[in-house]
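Researcher: I've been going back and forth with a colleague about how Nucleolar protein 11 might be arranged in three dimensions. Neither of us has a model we trust, so I'd like an independent prediction. The organism is Poecilia latipinna, in case that matters for your notes. Sequence below.
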Amino acid sequence: MAALCEGYTLCGLVPAVNRRSSEIKGIEEERDSDHVIVTDSSRSVTLYKVSDQKPLGRWTVKQGQLLTCAAVFNKQTNEYVAVSDNKVIRIWKEDDIILDKAFKATVSADVQSVHCAHGAEPAVLFQRGAVRLLDSLLSAPQQPVEEVLVQDEAIRWSTSIVTDTQQLVIFTTELKGDHFLYLQRLKPNSVQKYRLEPEGPGLSPLSFWASYRDKNICLLYLYPNGHVYQSLVSVRAPEADEGTQVVSLPRDQLLSLPVGKELLEAASAIFLDDAHIAVVGVPHPSAGPGKDFLCIWNTNFQTLQAAKEMAGKLYGQLWSFSSKLFIPHGKALSVIPFACPRSSLASALGKLKQVKTEESKTSTVVPSWNTILHGEEAAAPKPVEARKTRTTRKTQSSLSLTIDQVQDLIKMASVEEVEKEVQGLLSRQDPNDPQLSLGQLAMALVSRSLADPKFYSSRALTQLVPTRCLSHSVCPDLLPLALEKRDYFLCQLCLLFFHDIPEAVTCACLKAFISLSDLDAEKLSLEPDSVSFMEMLLSNEHAQTGLQNGFSPTFCEEDRTDAVDNPKAKAKEKKKASPQQTCPVGKHKAALINEILQTAYSEALLLPHLKDFSSDQVVLFLRYLEFLYLRYSTDGSSQTHGYRSPSLNQVMDWVCMLLDAHFTVLVMSPVAIDLLLNLQSFVKSQVRLFSELGKIEGSLQELSKMKMKKDVGQYSIEVMELY
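Model: Here is an independent structure prediction for Nucleolar protein 11. You can compare it with whatever you and your colleague have in mind.
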């Protein structure tokens, strides 16, 4: 049975001028399923890593210019393609910083859209219906472009599909209330026009979606009255006399969705697979008015299989990539994973019985930390012969409690009962079956904990978080509650498994961790790998190490004395030892801070909250970051240990942000002067390293060009001349 998993927020939305629009012009998949590019309706294209909800790059046209079609990614050349002001085609790479300095070409006619399907060459669709491949167009940008459409005919939707043998551009048009479908074949070049059957007076399709199945193009379209139709279009090239004819396109009604008394205004339907479609903007059959839902329907059995209420206004926009739905609503763009397993009639009607053997009830696999963190498969348990014992009716009922029953139990039962039932419930769940209600279960636990100070089930919450069915957007009060209860192990789990934690909450956790005394921190039970990593660092902190990564304590001492202008002060600096590689915090406290360093964030949103830290907290945090930098720079094995730990880049990013937020305070603080001198020496050591590498860059390039002899025997001497 299809399922909608718990979603998370990818990004906020630009405030819309027209409330009927989300201000998102398009979303396209980039190099893989974890990267997408989002084009807004104003001036920007942003590359996001979906799993981290983190922007990796952003490109903006100048003030007064507008992006007029969604950007696409050309996998053949690893380049982005977009159109500004209807006629200017822009092409750039990820490392291009200023979009205006990248390649651009002005064409002779207005462009409707650019499409790049499944690694094929980008195709450009003009507003009057002509289609050109990008390379052919750029060879002569001012080439004349024919008009395919008649006067007053306008394109409403378009896409591109790659079949087994050819590339197609498909678009629909509207002319005086009539709707047409154009199928443009690129190799060989031919176009065929179809007329869509009219639905009724004043009814125009709200959305279109196309996919390639069984040698046919499957066109899905939704009308305001809730009728969902499918039309099949053959991809074979038409005969000579067929190409000029307008053919009526037959259709089959897949669904008749309940719309209530009013017609739909902003809705969309897309294919998920052969038997399932996702619909947004259509009322839930059993929900009251004024509520917007995202639904999955089974077209074979005409049943609603999954639904999720969406907060805020829906705009009738929906995209699907790699089992994830992208939906703008309210002020956010959300990502909602989904699953569409093959359905039987029983499962579609919700009457499929879950068969549980006696053995599965008596044996439970408890996942290890390696299973949770690294996705390793747990070893299968050995079969255990169940004893035939009498059980009471109460025990039998407790073994069969559903999620809804456990949720009701949370409202009144004791902590011990709740923890027992949650553990039993999780042990009975199939790990491959996404559980949509676990988020509601966590919310019920948090709600009661907030309402009843005497109730707090840490054990139940720590069991729910690693299921990966929760996120901060699903249960926003969970992490603040853990901080309030000083449940730092639960805080660590949330930081580990939640990828959408707001910057304000991240800083609240960091402030709590820094303020925690080492004595109290040592009493905590934390994730084993995080503590083991710190034990490894601390055990090697007095080891003698040489020059690595362009840094050594000797160079550091020289750089410190060079940075001091006063001769007396310089003499004092020479007497001081090189930076101490002693951790300023205990290993448990450091393990908690390391989780913060690995949390996704936006620098612009994080900086204002960092400014609220006291100078003592900032100095302590910087000293710990200094310790990590020293260990990473002088011991190459510190990052090859296999433990989950912050990277050197993450450490340096946090150093830079702290200096940006508190530089004036640190300069005026006598306590921080040594720390700032050390940080300055770190920068000098890296500059020295890159300077030396630059001197031998030419020689290294020549070495890479040399052809090595394959057969050199057991011993040889070869002279290489470098210029």
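Researcher: What would you highlight for our discussion?
Model: I'd start with this: The longest helix spans residues 673-695. After that, consider the following. Residues 348-399, 544-551, 569-578 have pLDDT under 50 and may be disordered.
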